[in-house]
Specification:
Chain lengths: 245, 314
């Protein structure tokens, strides 16, 4: 509007441009690692100790007398090997672990976590490394029905499928021991194949599995994400772990 | 009741206006694409979020202009005897208010994040089989978000000046300055990558401050228009000299002893009153009508100047 003001904003623009152009070479001098962590997690982990918090949640995390087992400890062990770091495992409740994560006492929390918004407020979540598809399974040899309309489907007493099944017009029936029922069963595909059931084509719900990191540790996040994206045969491994239970 | 005649742009100006309308459609299209592209890469970066909101807000001026264009050419009628040309000013005020309010909210939000010392997380993405830092993608999107507005903003300012379209002129001026906010957002992301937790929220706060400043400036401008402030164009702070020119023209007429003119802006055009003191009352009614017609054809921006006669002071 006013010429004087224009002059001022012109100079502030110039200043900003110089600041940005100044930052870039500074970063180049900063050296190899970009992005880097705000609290230097990656530097500490490499050739050092990785602090992992875990909650039991089979088959993702299984507590055995010989230490943690299951899919996620396997994934983390192979990453730690690459980084030449030792792992210190900390068993606790999810709530306690997430609080510790916020205070940078832990570098990672696992336990079959899924990407819920409550979690992302407390921690930085990886992208989903595996999606569990929940569907309805039938004993092999039984012909698949064309739809779930009016079909009685067995579900465990504690579940998060009830509403989704109702939406598909199925009749969810709570069963105390889901492995001993004759009815079709709603479960993830890997669970169904581990129990010799045939998975139907429906998609009841999808669980997107993630791991939780402290916020702002962007180099550590990138390293873990790279490792997760390169990890294959997850479905098969889950099936084996479930069958071994 | 005396209803105004329809205002008609001269043919060459109409052509300029048609070009401006086309330009605004292009502007809107690019802006929508920018909002879409930024939405795809929106992470938990505050600077990115603020830049995204700013781009969403920048959809309002072209939309408001295009909607107003539909209304303002309606002929004046018994209910709206002065016509509809001020529709643009109302649209301008609405857009400016939205800008000022949201800018304030974003500023508060960014400062809160600074105060809480939140560490922004920028994750990784997998694209074409390789996993890389999301920040690179965000910077790419931000660079895209900067280039079209600078070019279109430049064209907008040039075209808007020709047809005295103040709302588009201001919008173009803001678009041209947009590269600065894009750059600030990039600096924020680059800073986070370098391990500076405050860079992101600080960049967000700076962008929000700029949005708020734009909003407040525009609210002032729009309120000035609606309060019939002395006409001036946004490119300069000085008032237009059209009123003085009209006075000179009136005084040059033989029967006029003295003349005084005041003008107001009605959107893109001017209206007002001229008070003349005639030497004599001879043939006065006819002379007044001729003078009115002369003034109303003197400049294309003049819609209606009513000439009235006053007796001399002594």
């Amino acid at each position: 509007m006013h010429t004087k003001k224009d002059q001022n904003s012109f100079w502030s623009k110039r200043a900003l441009l110089f600041i940005v152009l100044g930052i870039l070479p500074a970063l180049a001098l900063l050296g190899c690692r970009y992005p880097t962590d705000i609290e230097h997690t990656m530097e500490r982990i490499q050739n050092g100790v990785l602090e992992v918090g875990l909650t039991e949640n089979s088959p993702w995390v299984i507590r055995t007398n010989d230490g943690p087992a299951g899919l996620e400890p396997e994934i983390i062990r192979s990453l730690a090997e690459q980084l030449n770091s030792k792992i210190r495992w900390h068993w606790d409740s999810e709530d306690d672990l997430l609080a510790a994560l916020q205070h940078h006492q832990l570098d990672l929390v696992i336990g079959g976590l899924t990407n819920r918004s409550r979690l992302s407020q407390q921690a930085a979540l990886t992208r989903p490394y595996y999606q569990s598809r929940y569907t309805v399974g039938f004993p092999s040899g039984v012909p698949l029905p064309t739809s779930l309309n009016g079909l009685e489907v067995a579900i465990p007493p504690v579940n998060h499928m009830h509403a989704a099944l109702k939406e598909k017009n199925a009749k969810p029936v709570k069963v105390t021991d889901i492995t001993r029922t004759e009815s079709p069963i709603a479960a993830p595909t890997w669970w169904l194949s581990a129990h010799g059931l045939m998975a139907g084509p429906w998609e009841i719900i999808i669980d997107k599995h993630v791991m939780a990191l402290p916020k702002g540790e962007n180099a550590w996040m990138l390293a873990l994400q790279r490792h997760l994206n390169g990890y294959s045969n997850i479905e098969q491994r889950l099936q084996q772990l479930e069958a071994a239970q | 009741m005396k209803i105004r005649q329809v205002y008609q742009l001269p043919p060459d100006k109409q052509k300029d206006l048609d070009y401006l309308v086309r330009l605004e459609w292009w502007n809107l299209g690019f802006r929508i694409s920018i909002v879409g592209v930024l939405a795809l890469v929106l992470g938990s970066s505050q600077a990115m979020r603020v830049a995204w909101f700013e781009d969403m807000l920048s959809l309002i001026p072209p939309i408001a202009f295009l909607i107003a264009m539909r209304y303002r050419n309606r002929a004046p009628n018994a209910i709206f005897p002065y016509g509809y040309q001020r529709a643009t000013s109302i649209a301008f005020l609405c857009a400016a208010t939205a800008l000022a309010l949201l800018g304030g909210i974003l500023l508060l939000d960014s400062l809160l994040k600074l105060a809480k010392m939140e560490h922004p997380s920028i994750g990784a993405v997998e694209l074409f089989g390789t996993t890389f830092w999301m920040g690179w993608l965000m910077i790419g999107a931000l660079i895209y978000s900067v280039i079209p507005p600078v070019i279109i903003g430049h064209l907008q300012m040039k075209a808007a000046k020709k047809v005295h379209e103040k709302t588009v002129f201001v919008d173009g001026k803001m678009s041209k300055a947009d590269w600065m906010t894009g750059l600030a957002a990039i600096a924020g992301i680059v800073g986070v990558g370098a391990g500076l937790w405050w860079a992101d929220a600080l960049a967000g706060a700076l962008i929000a401050l700029d949005v708020t400043k734009d909003g407040v400036t525009n609210v002032k401008e729009a309120v000035g228009d609606l309060l019939d402030r002395r006409p001036r164009f946004t490119s300069k702070a000085e008032p237009e000299h059209l009123a003085d020119e009209l006075e000179e023209q009136l005084c040059a007429m033989g029967w006029v002893a003295s003349a005084a003119v005041r003008l107001r802006e009605e959107g893109h055009i001017f209206s007002g009153e001229a008070f003349v003191v005639p030497h004599s009352d001879e043939n006065l009614a006819q002379r007044l009508r001729d003078a009115t017609q002369f003034l109303n054809h003197y400049d294309w921006r003049i819609y209606e100047v009513v000439v009235t006669a006053w007796p001399s002071e002594n």
